[in-house]
Fold this sequence. Notes:
Number of helices: 17
Structural class: alpha/beta
Bound molecules: adenosine-5'-diphosphate, magnesium ion
Radius of gyration: 34 Å
Number of strands: 18
CATH topology of the largest domain: Rossmann fold
Largest sheet: 5 strands, parallel
Shape: elongated
Strand content: 15-25%
Helix content: 25-40%
CATH superfamily of the largest domain: P-loop containing nucleotide triphosphate hydrolases
Amino acid sequence: MRMEFSSTAEIALPKDPLEWVVGQENSVKIARICASQKRHMLLVGAPGTGKSMIARAIASILPKPKYEISVIHNPSRPEKPVLSVRTGEMAKSEKPKEFGVVLLPGEAPEFVSEQLGMRCRRCGGLSHSRIPSCPHCGADKIRKHILGMGGPEHSQKTTVEAVRVRKDGSEEMLIYERTNDDRVRMLTEKELKERKDHEAKLMRKVIVPLNRPTFVQVVGNNETELLGDVRHDPYGGHPEIGTQPYMRVVAGAVHESHEGVLFVDEMATLGETQRFLLTAMQEKKFSITGRNPNSAGAAVRVEDVPCDFILVGALNINDLGNLSPALRSRIRGSGYEVLLNTNMEDTPENCAKIAQFVAQEIKGDGKIPHASSSAVDEILEESRRICKEADGKKGLTLRFRNLSGLIRLAGDLTKAENAKLIEKEHVRSAVQFAKSAEEQLNDKYENPWSAGMADFGVRSKKGSETV
Ligand SMILES: Nc1ncnc2c1ncn2[C@@H]1O[C@H](COP(=O)(O)OP(=O)(O)O)[C@@H](O)[C@H]1O
Ligand SMILES: [Mg+2]
């Protein structure tokens, strides 16, 4: 076939990541619907046909997440941290609040400024609390302890408590404290309590940050990774030596993918965990608790943490039977099941798509040179050969993993020669080079195992003869 370019450097690559997916027009169409309508998607197909690629592309066209999820310390029941879901603006507007009144050292009662180290006991002159002796009269500001016990830092106070008599004769407790900028803050007991409650609210752990990827992938049956956890604390959350429960809460992939894509690769390997995933999809929220019953974390629970994700599951057609029927019907009920193609017709347009694929792989690799049009021709030959061998028919293969490895290898061989472009010869050498151990065995001994390998688009002796 005559190519319309001399090297793949001339091929303009599409901006839209879904247009990078070659030969899966139907799946791509559905992927767009899933992204805009927030539907789930099950991708069924052979390895290397673009399942992960489609999942990533869906995630990349989603809007940025709007909500941050955090947990807040609950002073009255630490084992039930409070859930907080807020927008970026809400998070930004959370300013530290001021409590009480701030006085200049000269405005505070004398005994207070003296005890806080701001006023000289002898001359009454004011100076910064960090200066140990009065700059006015030279006297030591800090009262030495009898028998010289304790250094100056022990005898200087940062808070002073005092009793004030109100106009009506009743008494109230006042707390004076030294601020960081050497002033005096005066608080009533009520204000002190309000501040404590407020500070407790600031004891916050962000478990799902605002700036997060919209693509979260899980593989295999790992409950804590999928559903979150509360870590064990050997001190059982003891207020002084332990770690507070809210600090030990960890989000799962279902939460991290809130407003994004949860990609479950090799979905059938989820096993028992499928049932939790189903619940999460139905409820769009999933409580986080310690998943190890013997751990101190098991007593801790955060209810109803949001998990509104687009599920994209991927699996090989042979594993379809291991998928829970309930989960499958859930996906079909609010989404789509699609079967990926393994080949496409050998037309000039489709050959051009393979050329686009070659250009994409080269760009994606970043370390190999571009390919000449004759090299692309040779890759097309390999694509026809794999199609014939794996699918037993004429066409161009869409099992791209092998082709992708081949391009990389041809690129490395080109680089090793210091050549500017991948040429036909480099692709040919790469084909020889890239043979798997089984294939090499097979070339030597015509090993009968190779028949089964055809499924993976691997060459067998018989296959290569038919090209
Ligand atoms: N349909 C496709 N179009 C373009 N490139 C593809 C396609 N399928 C696979 N590839 C290439 O092969 C690589 C592996 O594909 P991947 O999406 O991981 O396959 P799968 O998840 O189906 O096993 C991709 O990163 C991409 O470079
Ligand atoms: Mg994959």
